[in-house]
Amino acid sequence: MTSINEKATTLLELHRPGNPVILPTVWDAWSANLAVSAGFQALTAGSHPVSDSIGKPDNEGITFDELLHRISQITAAVELPLSVDIESGYGLEPARLIEGLIGAGAVGLNIEDTVHSEGGRLREPQEHADFVGGLRQAADAAGVHVVVNARTDLFVKQVGDESDRVDRAIARLKLAAEAGADVLYPVGRHDDATQKRLTSELPLPVNAIGLPDQDDPASFGPLGVARVSFGPFFQAALAAHAATLLGRWS
């Protein structure tokens, strides 16, 4: 069995700008095994699909313990490195989050700046960076280099004027980088010029979101992307196929 430290190192090393790692976003052992069978090197677990799979809403509609229960099932079923979307942290301290993730066998995390437990407010840039720093310090103390993917929701929430949104996202994510992030995630669908600017001006590997049934996998490398994940869109694409199949019989 690969050790958790080896998995963490492997996950980090897979992030190569221009030659992105594709991390299918899974939600249970079944979907994780689908991805393993298809030959992928690592996985993500998304909050939205995990929540959907147990009949609860996204945006911290499940508890951290409920998430960890599902993550433990995934890591028991597959050996691949797994990164977990922990939304904005469920109102918990970084040490508790890191302890729970490592205990469940995960070696990476997404942390977003929308605070769902406080009405969906956006953390201030330094506030978010400080939370990222707390996660890095907690991981260091635990002896596992958990891969921290710092996310901003400026684009998906369309916060502030569009004219300087890219500038503000870059400034916000640079603070997260300085605080100890490994990967930066300006989540949203960007045109090629914006994506190139983000990957060229941000100091760390950049995560982009991909639509598995629509996007060309080869399109992300030339834009400088280092990581592609699917968010809720893999589950949604499977649901659409399932609706077609079931519709023949209903």
TrEMBL record:
SUPFAM superfamilies in the cross-refs: Phosphoenolpyruvate/pyruvate domain
Gene3D superfamilies: Phosphoenolpyruvate-binding domains (3.20.20.60)
Record lineage: Bacteria, Bacillati, Actinomycetota, Actinomycetes, Mycobacteriales
One MF term in the entry's GO annotations: catalytic activity
Name of the molecule in the record: Probable carboxyvinyl-carboxyphosphonate phosphorylmutase
Name of one Pfam family that matches: PEP_mutase
